[in-house]
Specification:
Elements lengths: L1 E8 L11 E2 L6 E9 L2 E6 L8 H11 L5 E3 L2 E3 L5 E7 L15 H13 L4 E5 L12 H17 L4 E4 L3 H10 L3 E4 L9 H8 L3 E4 L17 H18 L7 E4 L8 H9 L12 E2 L5 H5 L10 H13 L4 E4 L2 H19 L2
Parallel strand pairs: 7-8, 7-14, 8-9, 9-10, 10-11, 11-12, 13-14
Antiparallel strand pairs: 1-3, 2-3, 3-4, 5-6
Length: 348
């Protein structure tokens, strides 16, 4: 069984007690679930969900539970409203901005500080491209790329996550001042990674990719991409918790664009709210992705701002807590307008 929150409402004030529920302790309220089970799909009011059995009750509890903030030294990352994570690549071959911040840690850190000043709650630093066909980077080279940038950012008071699948890079980045691990392979690519994350106490973001050992863009298709990605992430959360990581320190990412067709990506975006039933904060990384070009006359990467903002707002409407983006100022502005509309709607 899977539950997807649907029938979102502007305010709970116009509804009877128990008729609507708050989504993950955030700004959204909903009145029903789309239930996916052996009988297909059907809509069940929130008030009737207790009659569907133990798993439904457990999923409902996960959907509605507030997500505890991550305390990271002097910084706090809250999940009661959508937050922006700014992308900072220090690679020569990133699909979006490859080479822009390569070999100049001071300039790269300055770019990260500028994103934080523009409203990013988090800067996600990566030293290896994960675009299709990108070459593997030796872990020591990757660590040398990111560590001096992270040291400068952390020294400036900026909250940093390290975007890597390699344990040695995680170790070096955490030592340099990173507070969060963001792994496109969900701690599967490197056998040492779960122990490093558990020992450090750092939160981790687990992203779905179909074949992390051979590359994040493999896969042979899905019968139902939404429930298959959900089940895969649910299993990874359980495994990472068993490895010693506190469940409240785990976030998930459905992996838009990683080994998925245009149809798959659109299905995931249209069903984002289902992932709240994992009980963890959700990150959405759709900024400048190929699907935007596919839907807009093959617009090149540099001309995908409008589509990127549209997808960020789609995420906010679905209750996504972390939006990983290249265009921080524009996304933050869009979210501030969205937040103003939501605040006003709550009072009628």
């Amino acid at each position: 069984m899977h539950l997807r929150p649907v029938q979102f409402v502007d305010t709970p004030a116009a509804h009877a007690d128990g008729a609507v529920a708050r989504l993950a302790g955030g700004m959204q309220w909903f009145a029903a679930y789309e239930v996916r089970d052996g009988g297909g799909r059907h809509i069940v009011p929130v008030a009737a969900i207790a009659g569907l059995g133990e798993r439904a009750a457990m999923l409902h509890a996960r959907v509605t539970a507030a997500r505890p903030a991550w305390q990271l030294g002097a910084r706090t990352l809250r999940f009661d409203q959508p937050q922006v994570a700014g992308i900072l690549n220090v690679t020569p071959d990133s699909f979006s901005d490859g080479g822009a911040n390569m070999d100049d840690p001071a300039a790269a850190a300055a770019a990260g500080v500028a994103m934080a000043a523009a409203g990013a709650a988090l800067i996600d630093v990566g030293g290896e491209s994960t675009r299709p066909g990108a070459p593997l980077v030796w872990e020591e080279d990757e660590a040398r790329r990111v560590a001096p940038v992270i040291e400068r950012l952390a020294g400036a008071g900026v909250l940093v996550s390290i975007d890597t699948r390699k344990a040695a890079v995680m170790d070096a980045a955490l030592a340099a001042g990173a507070g969060i691990v963001n792994d496109v392979a969900a701690l599967l690519w490197d056998d040492r990674a779960p122990a490093i994350v558990a020992r450090s106490g750092a939160p981790v973001i687990l992203m779905h990719s179909p074949d992390p050992k051979t590359g994040p863009h493999g896969g042979s298709g899905y019968a139902d991409v939404v429930t298959e990605v959900f089940d895969w992430l649910e299993a990874r959360i359980d495994a990472v918790v068993a490895a010693g990581v506190d469940r409240t320190r785990i976030a998930v990412d459905p992996g838009i664009g990683f080994g998925k067709s245009l149809s798959d990506n659109l299905a995931l975006l249209n069903n984002l709210s289902i992932f709240h039933a994992l009980g963890c904060p959700i990150m959405l990384g759709a900024s400048r992705k190929r699907l935007i070009g596919a839907l807009s006359n093959e617009a090149p990467v540099a001309e995908r701002l409008g589509g990127s903002v549209a997808l960020a707002l789609k995420g906010a409407e679905a209750g996504v807590q972390l939006l990983r983006v290249h265009d921080v100022a524009e996304t933050v502005q869009a979210l501030r307008v969205w937040r103003g509309l939501r605040d006003r709607a709550l009072v009628g």
